[in-house]
Design brief:
Layout: E1 2-3, E2 13-14, H1 27-37, E3 45-49, H2 55-62, E4 67-72, H3 75-86, E5 95-99, H4 102-108, E6 114-119, H5 128-137, E7 141-151, E8 161-168, E9 171-178
Parallel strand pairs: 3-4, 3-6, 4-5, 6-7
Antiparallel strand pairs: 1-2, 7-9, 8-9
Length: about 180
Amino acid sequence: MIRIGAGKHKGLFLKVPQSKNTRPTMDKVRQAIFSAIKDKSVNAVVLDLFAGSGSMGIEALSRGAKKCYFIDRDRNTFKTLKENVLSLKEPEDKFALFLTDYRLFLKKSRGVRFDLVFLDPPYRFTIDADIIRYLMENEMLEEGAVIVSEQDYPNESIDGLSMKEYRYGQKHVAIYKKED
């Protein structure tokens, strides 16, 4: 089980999807990430791509996000994600759930601009930099946007973004900030 660490849903336990492809962010890593991004989730429009259990987006909602988009393409994982999000009893305008491939979601959502993005693709994928570039090229990031990238490999530097990388065991976590 995963537990929300702060905000109005503090202490809430979330279900974990039963999937080999899903690896929930450990509580202490999630808390370290939210400590590093400070109050960036307050009033933010959030994208939780490869959402899994939804712990990152739900933590953002708990800490005051305006809206969170949750995306996952695995049907069984999505079922757990949906249960977790609906357990919050938040108004429907606070979240959007999508059972779809990330590429299709991004293509159809070009008009949406995000303040905070969480990227945590399945093991072995090194697509975060490509996704971030796509978000930038299609003007899907607000000024001052923050992107959190979690992957099994070191993160790349990206033009137009500052980056600070942390290491938690085998996981590389980068926090990118869009330069004004």
